[in-house]
Amino acid sequence: MTAHSDTHIVGWEDHPFYQNCLNLIEAAGEQIDLDPNVFQRLSKPRRVLYVSIPVRMDDGTIEVFDGFRVQHNTTLGPAKGGIRYHPEVNLAETTALSMLMTFKNALVKLPLGGAKGGIRCDPSVMSRREKQSLTRRYTSEIFMLIGPDRDIPAPDVGTDAQTMAWVMDTYSAQVGYAVPGVVTGKPIEIGGSLGRVDATGRGVVYTIIEAAKRLNMDLDGNTTVAVQGFGNVGYYSAKIINSLGCKVVAITDVSGGIYKSDGINIQAAKDWLDKNRTFDGFPECDKISNAELLELKVDILIPAALSNQITKANADKVKCRILAEGANGPTTIEANQILNEKGVFTIPDILANSGGVIVSYFEWVQGQQSFFWSEKDVNNKLWEIISNAFGRVYDFHQAKKIDMRLSAFAVSIEHLSKAMLYRGFFP
Ligand code: GLU
User: Fold this and answer.
1) Probe ligand 1: pick from 17, 70, 200, 204, max atoms within 8 Å of CB?
2) How many angstroms is it from 229 CA to the middle of ligand 1?
3) What is the domain partition of the chain in residue ranges?
4) Statement: 33-183 belongs to CATH 1.20.1250.20
């Protein structure tokens, strides 16, 4: 199967991340005899919106930012996916990330499609007021696409509950009443769900527990863990796996990080980073770079930063037993092949980090019903959905003798393609 994208119309065709996704759909499709018409449909996003966003900066000048919202697929329900603020955001990456959302949501059988948004900006150097203006103007520009029944944004790299509150307020101001269901990952006070803030990290750990069971591995004080990225996903993954007794020996953020062979105090490291914005000077630890962290001999490696971190250049040096992908797209297809040959057990992104969108779904459901659940209920239901999805992916991987990534995409696309064929193609 080849996608009909031989001409350069929109610019994502040649992007390695998009190509990676396309190759995965193609290879997974072969495992399930995917209808070639469905493959053609899935090879392109449904809708793409580019917006330019003028913001008056604190120095009085106007800066114009580039933003996107991409809806890849809406067969199973409203489009769903985060909004990313990062200097490297572009249309091709946003498109690839929207595709991953489609397959993530279908894999865990949520009644949701896949989308992603982003603004090319550096939130770390912007004031609160600048970020608020940026968010509100972006929301008003993508207003025509979003809504609780259409497309529901959430936090991603560089955005958080406060960002979602501004999106919700701007949307609500336009329609004239409060619409909590237009976003997820909101503050609890305006309709957020208990358990949403730590859901992605919690899901990462739940999938590691499932993997360890299958691999006959104990998770205890002798288990070593390295976490790349100390944003929302990295921090909560580290904290929750540490609460099981495992030793987190290394953590990094953008500017590098720290190593300690008998385990880092995660809360102290988080407090330090919040205060100093760098791990530099954190007591009793050695310095470590992002590249070194990926090559550590540890039981569990959690890349929880950006895409394209484990490539053919360094995959051979990765020495973990379990790779649990907290980030979206951290491993290239060539690297995946090398890891397979080395016997690394990979829990792929669309499974490992699906806890975030699963609890987003719970938040949306609770909002629609105006009936809110306890944190215990949220976590139990998260466990049910993610461990069930893990089981389906693992069983397919065993039955077909294919790796976990291919298996996850195959299981997901099998479900989605049935739905697409039932609905048919309009007109
Ligand atoms: N941005 C997160 C992800 O990549 C969460 C998306 C959501 O909750 O809609 O999965």
Assistant:
1) 200
2) 16
3) 33-183, 199-352
4) no
Indicate whether 6 pLDDT > 70: no
Tell me how far apart the alpha carbons of residues 415 and 240 are, in angstroms, rounded to a whole number: 31
In this prediction, residue 12 has a pLDDT band, given cuts at 50, 70 and 90, of confident
CA distances from 405 to 15, 89, 202, 315, 390 (A): 20, 25, 20, 16, 11
Peptide bond between residue 427 and the one before it cis (omega within 30 degrees of 0): yes
Q: Do domains 33-183 and 199-352 have the same CATH topology?
A: yes
d(CA 362, CA 382): 9
Cα–Cα distances in angstroms (integers) from residue 402 to residues 97, 109, 395, in the given order = 24, 21, 10
Q: How far is residue 383's CA from residue 372's CA, in Å, rounded to a whole number? A: 18
| Ligand 1 pocket, CB under 6 A | 80-82, 154, 156, 184, 328, 353, 356-357, 360
Distance between CA 281 and CA 79 in Å, rounded?
43
Average pLDDT, the chain: 96
pTM: 0.97
Looking from the CA of residue 84, the nearest atom of ligand 1 is: 1
CA nearest ligand 1 atom 9, residue: 81
Q: Which residue has the tokens 């987190």?
A: 248
Using DSSP's 3-state secondary structure scheme, residue 366 falls into helix
Residue 353 CA to ligand 1 center (angstroms) comes to 8
Helix (H, G, I), strand (E, B) or coil at 381: helix
pLDDT surpassing 70 at residue 4: no
Asked if residue 285 lies in contact with residue 273, where contact means CB atoms within 8 angstroms, the answer is no
Q: pLDDT tier at 168 (50, 70, 90 boundaries)? A: very high
Q: Which one of the listed residues 44, 104, 116, 239 is annotated catalytic?
A: 116
Distance from residue 412's CA to the centre of ligand 1 (Å):
17
Q: Fold for domain 199-352?
A: Rossmann fold (3.40.50)
Residue 97 alpha carbon to ligand 1 centre in Å: 10
213 is a catalytic site residue: no
